Structure formats: structure tokens, C-alpha cells
Amino acid sequence: MEDSIDVILEDHTGVLSPHRPHPAVSACLGALFTAVYGVWSTFALPGLGTIPRKLKVPYLPSSRVQTLNIMKLLEGRTGRLVDLGSGDGRVVFAASSTGFQCTGFEINSILVAYARNKARWNGLPTSQAAFVNKDFWKTDLSHFNNVTAFLAPGVMAVLSEKLLKELPDDARVISCRFPILDWPVQSSVGSGLDQTFAYDIGIVRAHLRKAPEAEV
């Protein structure tokens, strides 16, 4: 998405017209593009000054199919669920409707405000659906036994280290679109962009312990 903004901001005046635009027109266009970029970056790249560059993930909401796939992979499970990068709260709302005690971590304060207002409008108590404006990378997730995430390929390795360090053995991790490499997939639903993967932490730990032994 950054590339598309860069293209918009490119100077095409030499192609479109041999004349330079009036300074007032240039100023207005510059202000407009700056405002558009500001709004876009607020939603697409939250936490610009607080999250390390390598851990930044643009906002991309889960599709309806992805959300349904998540719920299929949560069937038969109960307890506390955390959605990492909860956006507008759609996964939290879906999971809370089936009895999970849900917490959504979202660094974008605008999206958090939207999700909280929607929860209040629907009469959901915070014990059932809570939204936290906080960096989940700096939060201990050990008291959650269900984790959902729709992040980006570049952060999956770091995420796997964090989850292995903090989650209990009975925890299930569900990742949309992007698998966690080196982890054995317990089950998978969907295909293409909507494919969703489930991992059970106890099985993952056992697999990773055996891996070095197999190499010897």
C-alpha cells in the first residue's frame, strides 16, 4: 500500500502538461495528499512511533470466510481467547458469541474506540469482549489458552518464539493466511487467501524437541 501512495505523490506534471501548475493549486493538492496519507497511515500502519519497524503489520481486516474458518477451528474449545491485532473486533465478537472470554489487542486507538462502542451498543460486558489499546508484543499472554492472529509473514518467526515461551501446553494458536513455519499443523480450513491454520502448543513443543534428535 505504501507503493500506491508513492505513485500518487509522484510528479507527473511533465507527462500531463508542459506547463507548471499554479503555486496555489500545488499547495492545495499537497495538503490534500498529506491529509489522505495521514488518514491512510493511521488505519493501515498504526503504532508508527511505538512498534519496532520489523514488527509493524498493516491493518487488514479478516474476511467473513476467514472468520468462519477461525470459528470452525475453535469448535469444542472453551476458555480465554486473545486476538492479536483485533482491528474492528470482528473475530472477538464472533468468538464471544460462542462463550469465549475474549480480549482483543489493537494498537490503533481509533479501531479500539470503534470496537468498544460496538460492544457497548450490543450490550457485551468487558468480561466477555474487552479491547485493549496496547502493544501485544510487550504483553504476557500466558493466561490465554486460545490465540488468533492475522498478521504478516515477516513477523511469524518472532511470534512463534513469543508464543512458545509464554503459552500453556493446552493452548491452541490459529493463524489466518500465513502459516507458522516449522510448526506441525494440527488442522487447516479453507484455501488460498482464506486458508486458516491451527496449532496445539503441546504438540508443537514435542515436535520441536524431537527435531534436533532426528538430525543427530
Automatic annotation (TrEMBL):
UniProt keywords, alphabetically: Methyltransferase, S-adenosyl-L-methionine, Transferase
UniProt GO cellular component terms: mitochondrion
Domain of life: Eukaryota
Name of this chain's protein: Methyltransferase domain-containing protein
Native source organism of the sequence: Takifugu bimaculatus
Gene Ontology MF terms: protein-lysine N-methyltransferase activity
Family: Belongs to the ANT/ATPSC lysine N-methyltransferase family.
Single biological process term from Gene Ontology: methylation
InterPro entries named in the record: FAM173A/B (IPR026170), SAM-dependent_MTases_sf (IPR029063)
